[in-house]
Amino acid sequence: MKLYAAAALLCLSHVAESFVPPSTAVSVVSTLSSTVEPLAETKTDIDEQKKQKRQQLKEALLGRIGSPSSNKFVSDPLLVDPMTKEPLGISVKGPILGSTNAGVRLTLKSASDSERVFEGRSDAYINLLEPISDYAEEKTSVANSPILSSLLTLTPPPVRSLLANVSSNSDLEYIPMRDLFTSPSVSYAYERGWRQGFAAAGFPGADEEFDMAREYFAPVIDKKRRSGEENVVVDMSCATGLFTRRFTKSGEYGRVIACDYSDSMLTEARRRIRVDSDIALSNTKLDLVRCDVAKIPFKSDSIDAFHAGAAMHCWPEIEESLKEIYRVLAPGGRYFASTFLGTYFQNVANLEKSSNGGNDVEQSMQAFQYFPTVDGLRDLLLDAGFDGDKVDIEVIGAACVIIRCEK
Prior knowledge:
Elements: E1 15-18, H1 25-33, H2 43-63, E2 75-80, E3 87-95, E4 105-110, E5 117-121, E6 126-127, E7 140-141, H3 146-153, H4 157-165, E8 172-173, H5 176-179, H6 184-194, H7 206-226, E9 232-235, H8 244-250, E10 255-260, H9 263-274, H10 277-280, E11 285-290, E12 303-309, H11 318-328, E13 329-340, H12 346-355, H13 374-384, E14 391-396, E15 400-406
Parallel strand pairs: 6-11, 7-8, 9-10, 9-12, 10-11, 12-13
Antiparallel strand pairs: 1-3, 2-3, 3-4, 4-5, 5-6, 13-15, 14-15
Helix pairs in contact: 1-2, 11-13
């Protein structure tokens, strides 16, 4: 792991409080602990070894951010405020010595607005969905109510929105295609049969789908590798980390950023990552970020490869989401996605319509995005900014759509 010198370092005690990136500090500790010489027998030598180790850890944590700054505002090279797109200064507080299972608390502050503060943990995820000051907003999302979210999961799609939105609790917001996946029961079931059921639509399976994405990303990644630059892949709507883990374990990517709207999905993803011994041995930087795909918290022109597996049909603001993906892709960057044609959900769509007096349901209240045709999907991608000759859409089986786009 490449380490960069950091200027003006403060003395570091067993509790560190300095600027670091939103990456897992555990990997830094593990890597450095394998390189530090065995401690000497005398107390003086032991104290000196501890001092040197703390200094190395301090420099390593700072170095993972990227280019050290001459002032005290240190930002991640990719992460920004999802609304203002301003850089985020990152600070850490917590133990960096001792148990490698201990995470650190992260605080991220906007460069231009000190009131826009985000937080997270290195052993969980970074919450860039909303700043701390917005947690107590009057309108509460079902995403923040695991019990209600789980109950709504068991109801038919048309009834979900009625229960959540046409109720005595007018302060409760429920968007079916988004909040379905905030349920802990869905997170638990996702890799225990739910995702495997997509085979009925023609999905080739996680391993083959991953190989397709890796093959499409390869020219971009190889070019970055030859130039000596770090490459970055984003796994948007990562769910339980089904593809995140594959990207990380492949060893082909310098940094993997897994994103999802759902707290329960990210929690399950982190649990699976934690018990995967191959990931523990990987040198790939891995970050989990909670965010909205319609407000992606990355710098413009910064992402080499962007993946979204079986996800687009669950994005309420599909037009804005695709525009955001185009914005964050670097020139020549590639987008690989899989989703469903609307025909696969025809019975659900018919039930929604009949439950609404024969009228079409408002898009935000649909169970899913119903993409009627390949041409319709292509138009969405062109409207987002992609050139027609750099958009390829393939249909596999009955309703599995594979999308490949280059910026």
